[in-house]
Hints:
This protein has about 80 residues and is mainly alpha-helical. It has helices at about 35-45, 60-70. The longest helix is centred in the last third of the chain and has 15 residues, at about 60-70.
Amino acid sequence: MRTFSKTIPKTTAPTRSLTPSPLGRTQPVPMDAEQVKRQGWREQHILVIAQDDARLDFLERQLITSIGERLYGERQPSKGGGVR
């Protein structure tokens, strides 16, 4: 009886690409909020100010509050009962 031996080619592991997977790009990139505010002011003339910004004095805070209330209405009380 004659047997034929067939050589089976060896499979190699797939080569890995050096480019990252598109799945890795779904992670959010942290942004610097102050940089975004600065860029918005310089490029779009949009000013974002928190009423309780420590860099503002009392009169500046009052001015911000009055402008905000005139444009957008009075602030709603917070539901958490905390001081804002």
